[in-house]
Amino acid sequence: MALCVALLIASEFMPVSLLTPIAHDLHATDGMAGQAISISGLFAVVTSLLIATFAARFDRRHVLIGLTAVMLISLIVIALAPNFFILMMARALLGIVIGGFWSLATATVMRLVPSESIPKALGIVYTGNAVATAFAAPIGSYLGGIIGWRGVFWAMTPFVVANLIWQWISLPSLAPQKANAMGKLFGLLRRRNVAFAMLGVMLTFAGAFTTFTYLRPFLETYTGVNIAQLSLLLLALGVAGFVGTYFASTMAARHLYSLLTGLPLALGAVTLGLLGIRYHMTGVAFAMFAWGAVNSAIPVCWSTCSRRVSATSQRAAVDYSWEPSSCPSCLAAPLEDFFWTTYQSPQRSSEEPHYSFSQPSPSAEGTAFDLSKRSSIQNLLSRTGRRTVIPQRASANRETDSSVRNQKETLKMKGTVLYGPRDVRFEDREEPRIEKPTDAIIRISATCVCGSDLWPYRGIQKIGQPTPMGHEYCGIVEEVGSAVKTVKPGQFVIGSFCISDNTCPNCKAGYQSGCQHLESMSRAQAPILRVPLADGTLLATSEVPSDDIIPSLLTTSDVFGTGWFAADAANVKPGSTVVVVGDGAVGLMGVLSAKIMGAERIIAMSRHEKRQQLAKEFGATDIVTERGDEGIERVKELTRGIGADSVLECVGSQDSMMQAIRSTRPGGSVGYVGVPHGMKLEMWPVFFALVHLHGGPAPVRRYLPDLIKLVWDRKIEPGKVFDLVLPLEQVAEGYRAMDERRAIKTLLLPNGKR
Length: 754
Prior knowledge:
single chain, alpha/beta, Growth Hormone, Chain: A, Rossmann fold, 3 domains, 25 helices
């Protein structure tokens, strides 16, 4: 298959370097000869969109062999073409092969190899693309000067015959599969962000490939190159493609949207520069190299962008796929990733690969993933699933702010529901919709289990009915109400667990958790979430982040923001001594926050070695394992009998609160953020303690801009607090692991996919 890919790309790119002799021999203009390239792109676009529906009726082996045979026929007809019309027909046939093969190749590879070998197998296949892209044009130019343009195409036919035989021998039978619905494609065009993306991609690639098509006549007419010089220049262009692809791949994670804006502008500038220095060989050579590097970087960035916006980092449906750089003459080529996740039937596509991630079963004790190994989280982040669509009569009185959702159906999704003590279920729930003009709908990129979720899970906090769970979240905006102004579809957002308008007097004072229109977030442990008061609750990042930083960004939604508030409420200052009561996720974030705020000494109270190690990594200088009176005495010993300047209470029990107060020096401050349960504060010891008390639910929204910036600039990594990563459907195991203290905090990665 890799050889077939290389031959396809070579067949497509050869005419670029042979444009002048083709035009001369067939009595056509250079412009007409260029259309022989464009027609391949046109037929490739149409074929790529239709081939999966057609091919689903036949054995995939026979389809691929048939396409290869058509490629052989097209090459022979091109080599024998007596006139321009026959050449165009043969190139149209080649376009059918290009679009058909690329649309089906990835799906075929994923059916042929085990899931763990898919990346390597695809890498082998696409190596043929890279090699042919770099060397087809210069080799065509060189050989064309020796054996003529017809001879070049004849020279390719033995390779295609060999590949045809190879496929016949090696490809196994691949049974027909159910096809996807065509109507899904056209529904995409009604989405404004997709339509704008399509327009941008079309203009960019149309301009780039128009330039590429007519490089040979330009160089021969104005620069005056001979065949040898032309071949070297085209070789430099191809080698530059490797350079551009490499640098785009490394820079896209941090500077994606700057690249998306800057690269097309740079390509235009280099193209104009070519016109200005067209008579100077040295300048043209440097400009050609720059042009090749920039041009090859653009498809990489577009693919990265579309994967991020669709909240996926690996493909999960493969019927309608092709590599954008494989057919740059096709105006819509780089739109492939927008079709990956949306151009599918509601049920699981039969062409989807069946990934195996070695995940814990619901009854297992859970599998901890090392977040320093980016592949683990990327694998889970890239999983996909489906929701069922249950038709029903349209409600006559239903009114929403949405113009997108179909009122004649109710969309179902899976979500987390707590039924009672230690009874967590992941079950069908109605997908949220826009209910008020101030709402936003986001697709969750990551959520988690909070320590406060364990109170109702353990039965300490009573619930009267099945309760949807989850209040920590981040993800991609899918839809907004008409009154929402600060976020828009396609943006990555993080929101506070306290829903606030951010405009009332309390919000303006910095206490959004005391908003006059306060609501509490729930239902976040699900693939889709409705966020009320979106303008006041959500904050968008400058770009869609890379996968490895998402866990740390998620912490700013609650646990990091709460730890920060604890330190802020306790008046942590540079050079101060701080005690942190509680070694859960909030306590560990309190340690990190105190360190950032400049505390000189940070005493973490913990009995668990794993949590002690993380506390030290976050900045703890001392560990106290004792509790109660012994713990207070130990703190006094470490502080020369005085007590700490600032104490962070991060548990919420009677004992932890008293331990915090009694560990504080007179005049010191206690910041309490542990959700209180069973606490009856006796005022007599508090009265004589002479300490400042400040706390409550954290006004996370106040801190979000600063905390997000710290994470975004990679100065800190609070996401290390997640020591267990699970698919969202295994949320019950996440609760069990935290309840049994096998995990500090569980990161949940949704598998729902629109």
